[in-house]
Amino acid sequence: MNFQASGISLPQTSLFIDGEWRPGAGVYPLFNPADGAQIADIANCDATHALAALDAAARAQPGWARLAPRARADLMHAGHRLMRERGAQFVHTMTLESGKPLTEARAEFNLSADFLLWFAEQTAHIHGSFSNASHGGFRVVTTHQPVGPCLLITPWNFPLLMIVRKAGAALAAGCTTVTKSAQETPLTCALFVQTLIDAGFPKGVANLLHTTTPSAVSETLLKDRRLRKVSFTGSTRVGSLLLRLGADNIVNTSLELGGDGPFIVLADADVDLAVDHAIMCKFRNAGQACVAANRIIVDREVEPDFTDKFVKKVSELKVGDGMDPVDVGPMISARQRDRLFDTINQLTSAGGKVLTGGRALQRPGYFFEPTVVRFDGPNPVMCDNELFAPIATVFPVEGPRQALEFANTSNYGLASYVFTRDLTQAIAMGEQLEFGMVGINRGIMAEPAAPFGGTKWSGIGREAGHDGIYEFLETKYMALTVG
Ligand code: NAD
């Protein structure tokens, strides 16, 4: 489908700095992953643009922090209303540049709008406390203040949800922002920033950079003492690099990194429900999600039934251009698709058997067949191995103890899942899973009021929920002598 033919216009392709759209140091081409065709030339920033964006954010910070919470909330509500009015443009932009099917883009849009609304509602509910010191004699007063100008670095896999989840919390907390979009999905971020500006957000509060050399932004800004916070979603490798870059300046850092999501199906589970949720959890966004079901761990008693039904449904998934009615779109890039040839070799060399899929599609665009690889039992090849692809691996296990042990054999700790009809078992297992999130009889967990995040290699801090806003606040304590 031709974007222009749909009657929907392309968002801004420039950088947004200090209240105006500005050109970059040059441009880079943006491609549609569904057919490889060029969509637009995007402004490419360098270190001077990054500094200009931080200058603007630092100048705007005191005024934005001082603004009454109700006034900030009103602006965010206006942003939310405008966002809703522009729903069709958001959905089409996301599908165009990220490849995800329109139905998924629509779901992401609705969820993102709900996140912005939730953050708007929280703006006037940031509370402090007043209590007595433990031995009496003085009072303990706490209050919360915005941490300061923030750098938000977003990935391409959920181009709208990621900027809303970060910027929504930062703005609600009273912080100004410099967002660096993912190179592959700049337009969705541009449309969101444009929406905030049209809603009346003051100059300098929301700035936006695009670049093919992200290190120019991070190396410049993380060394600048005015930057007080970085919030990043992406790979563990880059997360670790950002921690090192911010170390000298002790930059407050939140990291939402990768995962190797164990998806446990116990012997008493509703197998049909588990199959449906495994499909959603694994093949949504062509498997390019940090919370995707990476290792499907099934009690041997029900594994043949589960695998038969799962493979049948996976082989029926319709793959194609996200603008058409399909279940699975393309991978984000040729690079992401091409690495899967090695992945399949790695899995089969380790004893995995391909039950369906396993190949790239012979057509323009970066498509890979929805794939299921079965192992005979737990296998270390998939521990610490984030597939980020439409490839599911299935491992039969001998009961809940082995399921738990295999699930916890991981340096990651983001999302995990348990399917069982026994709630006591589910809670016991949920408590022992070394993961930041546990879905019990459900494969999708994102929700504005819930703290999203992981342990170990999966990151530091939480996004959304009350915790998500406090990531952008400092706690101040005042000792008050009374009488
Ligand atoms: P990445 O970590 O390289 O990119 C994520 C974001 O970080 C992008 O905006 C990118 O421009 C930026 N970035 C990269 N290097 C940077 C630097 N030196 N300084 C500042 N920003 C920098 O991830 P990718 O290459 O796009 O994808 C590779 C892998 O990362 C995936 O296969 C997956 O494992 C993981 N990933 C995870 C998530 C997630 O949701 N947690 C999202 C995207 C990618």
UniProtKB/TrEMBL annotation:
Annotated Gene3D superfamilies: Aldehyde Dehydrogenase, Chain A, domain 1 (3.40.605.10), Aldehyde Dehydrogenase, Chain A, domain 2 (3.40.309.10)
InterPro entries: Ald_DH/histidinol_DH (IPR016161), Ald_DH_C (IPR016163), Ald_DH_CS_CYS (IPR016160), Ald_DH_N (IPR016162), Aldehyde_DH_dom (IPR015590), Aldehyde_DH_Superfamily (IPR050740)
Domain of life, source organism: Bacteria
GO BP, sorted A to Z: gamma-aminobutyric acid catabolic process
GO MF annotations, alphabetized: succinate-semialdehyde dehydrogenase (NAD+) activity
Cell inner membrane keyword on record: no
Transmembrane stretches, start-end: none
Matching PROSITE patterns: ALDEHYDE_DEHYDR_CYS
Family the entry assigns: Belongs to the aldehyde dehydrogenase family.
Protein name: Succinate-semialdehyde dehydrogenase/glutarate-semialdehyde dehydrogenase
Organism lineage string: Bacteria, Pseudomonadati, Pseudomonadota, Alphaproteobacteria, Hyphomicrobiales
